[in-house]
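FAQ: What does a multi-protein file look like?

Like this. Sequence, then tokens, then the next protein.
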Amino acid sequence: MAKRKQTFALLSLILAFALAIAACGKKEETGGSSPSASASPSESASASPSGSSGADAGIAALKGKKIALIMRLNTGTFSAQYIDGVKKQVEKFGGVLTVLGSDNDLNKMAANLDSAVTQKFDGILIDHGDPGALTAGVNKALEAKIPVVAFDSALNGIEGVTNLAQNDQKLAELTLEQLAKDTGGKGNIVKVWVAGFPPMESRQISYKKFQEKYPDLKEVAAFGDASNPQLDTQNKLEAVLKQYPNKGDIAAVWASWDEFAKGAANAIKQAGRDEIKIYGIDLSDEDLKMIQDPTSPWVASAAVDPSSIGTVQVRYLYQKLHGDTTDATVELEPVFVHRDMLPKDKAVTTADLAQYVQGWGQSDAGNTDYLKALEASVGK
């Protein structure tokens, strides 16, 4: 009996030892093939190749966006090139652009903004808006989680909106100083300007300083209408020229918009008053052609590349769509272009103007690595 108990105890000891060895081996095998229970899902993801696919997904989410461009007016070649810059950049990002023109009617512009919110566009661009007319609509857009980026609209008081603007005071200063230099600071001048537009109001600040600085340059006429700018300017300047019929009665015209400059040039040429020179603001291919023409009275202008403005505005909108916090204000610096800077033996366009005027051309403002990757992905 005692011997049988000893045998049973020995067998039990051998069996327990074998089970212990088996359990140890299974634990080692399990530990080497799976993550520990304490590892978080994010840690596991970052340790795996799926991190790069997350970045790819973020870029892919920016494709196919519906973008609305709401414009107060889209008159002239400057606006045409600006729209072209917006459209091309939206397409490069894989989006679709809808342009809503308002015919210089702020009530219609406000209605277009409301419509864009109702139609649930993914992003809204505003061109030459007005805070009084658009603040309520912009707030509706932001409440609907639709990002807004505005150009020359003075919507700086609305948190969450990025406001692009040309340095309008500098635009005026550059052209007015050249006018003063070319006239010797003396003579009668005509101002073509219109109130009610934020960029125009900024340009007027520089004009008032100019008047104080050069008291011998006398303003003999001032007018301007944005509804039909070329024809209105031409008709009104023709009337002024009849009031001052002699050569030397008027030294120069300052035009605060290229559409005004074109109308003024038509009036001066038709009157045969080639002694009167025009100093304008804004620049397009059509404008450059006129400035290069030795028979044209328009000799100089200050501007930011209109296509580049559109491109930069779209980039900031897509930064917002990506979830980035963007700058409240972005100011674009202008350049000055005089006929004497340009070649006399070939026509120059805005595409090759940088060869002759330093600082002109495409800007990298607002660009990011992920937007470059998005553009490359769409372009494949």
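And here is the next protein:
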Amino acid sequence: MRADRGVALGPSITDGPAAVPRGRSVRVLVIEDEERLARLIERVLTDERYEVEVALDGARGLARALTGDYDLLILDVMLPGIDGVEICRTLRGRGISTAILMLTARDGVDDRVIGLDAGADDYLIKPFAFAELLARLRALTRRRLDPPESSQLQVEDLVLDLVRHEARRGGRLIELTAREFALLEFLMRHPGQVLTRNQILDNVWNFDADLASNVVDTYVHYLREKIDRHEQSRLIRTVRGVGYAIGR
């Protein structure tokens, strides 16, 4: 068993709200080449009423993810053959929007940014407690099952289409990565409100703020370059010592 496969059980995994919403079965595909860990995850999730399938290598996992109807993917980064980042990129490139939680022993910010930019929704560092795994799955499930109030968000002349996954300012199409889109969506859901770096990290990255606070500044810079640079009015504001806001 590789050293990067450790998990910690932590507090009782049945504490807190039910993992799976009543009235439906949430389908999960676990792509993990360490069979002992994969089967342990399968057992824990099955006990919490998830419907679970397991693929023990990247090629089989990708094939299932491309053809199956899943609500969530738990995807290990370090897979033989096709690694988790490549699987994530392929799925997003094919228009598959299934929520993806990536697992890795690499805890560097750059490593996590690579996975998130590939299209992952969340990241969990090994070793992890199953209580935390279940909490993250609940959060991802809520995001997928709660329909947006509108298919579009608008702040002044900036429009974000949540269905087509497009951003336009004054009719100009703005090319965004998956993470830039998620950050812009969070800002536009709170127009005029100053959001702290910790709030942004918790809602867009789910990162430990002490490890990744510079990531917010970096991605706000990316958004400004694409949204504000060639415009007379700037939409994204910095509030010194607090955080960022979009609109007035």
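Q: Is there any per-entry metadata?
A: Some entries carry free-text notes. For the entry above: The chain has two domains: 3-145, 152-246.
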